[in-house]
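Encode chain A's predicted structure.
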Amino acid sequence: MSFNHLIGTLDVTGVDALARIDSFAGDPIRFDKVEIVHATFEARMAESLAALPPALHPSIPGHISLLIVRCADSLLGPFSLAQVRIGCRAGIKPRGFCLGAVTDSAVVADALSSRWGFRCRFGAIALSKRYHRVSVHAEL
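Encoded structure for chain A:
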């Protein structure tokens, strides 16, 4: 039986975008006083397919999402995290395939990589909230 589903076309051989998990062991980590900004923008289908590996299906319509998290208190210390994700599906489940992430905490970057396989680069993140808008600036 053959299906005619769209799948991603990103060649992942040699891609250094995947982190390696050292161990799944460890206690849960609690994050308190968290602020989240999430924005979604439509993307062209061709770019969506090119950014996804073959194991994932693109969302229709294609979209990019920005997810910014600011955590004032955790066992890892305070931190901010910014992600750029391409919308996708794993089977029928909606997901976001992370194209890039930045955090302002080296401890958090290491923990995300070694414990959860989430590659994140160290950089600066500025989040400004006003009554009429929220602005975010992330920089490596």
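The radius of gyration is 17 Å.
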